[in-house]
């Protein structure tokens, strides 16, 4: 039986933050400055991109831009 070993390479912080940047957008509930509730849409590195009135609208917006939505708690 062969001995297979996995080698891990540490990613620089910047490289780690960019993982999924071109594939995933994150959504989470937010409070807007006027006190209204919304669903925030964020890039993989955490930058705010947009807000939507519902999770369904947020997911549709994300998919329209060829990204995959991921929920953040």
The helix/strand series, from N terminus to C terminus, equals HEEEHE
The structural class is: alpha+beta
Shape: elongated
Helix content range: 10-25%
- Tell me about the biggest sheet? 4 strands, mixed
Radius of gyration using CA atoms only: 17 Å
Our estimate of the beta-strand percent is 25-35%
Q: Residue ranges: pLDDT <50 for 5 or more in a row?
A: none
Q: How many helix segments?
A: 2
**CA-to-CA gap between the ends?**
43 Å
Roughly what is the average pLDDT, rounded to an integer?
83
Strand order of the largest sheet: 3-2-1-4
* Total number of beta strands: 4
Task: Summarize the SSE layout with pairings.
Layout (H helix, E strand, L loop, with lengths): L12 H6 L5 E8 L5 E7 L4 E5 L2 H10 L3 E4 L2
Parallel strand pairs: 1-4
Antiparallel strand pairs: 1-2, 2-3
Could you please describe the fold and organization of this structure?
By secondary structure, the protein is of the alpha+beta class. It has a domain at 23-71. It is built from two helices and four strands. The protein has helices at 13-18, 55-64, and strands at 24-31, 37-43, 48-52, 68-71. A four-stranded mixed sheet has the order 3-2-1-4, with helices on one face. The chain is elongated, with a radius of gyration of 17 Å. The termini are far apart.
């Amino acid at each position: 039986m062969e001995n297979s070993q996995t080698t891990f390479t540490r990613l620089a912080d910047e490289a780690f933050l960019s993982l999924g940047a071109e594939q995933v957008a994150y959504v989470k509930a937010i409070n807007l400055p006027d006190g209204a509730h919304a669903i925030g849409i964020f890039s993989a590195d955490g930058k705010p991109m947009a807000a939507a009135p519902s999770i369904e609208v947020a997911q549709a917006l994300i998919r329209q831009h060829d990204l995959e939505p991921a929920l953040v708690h």
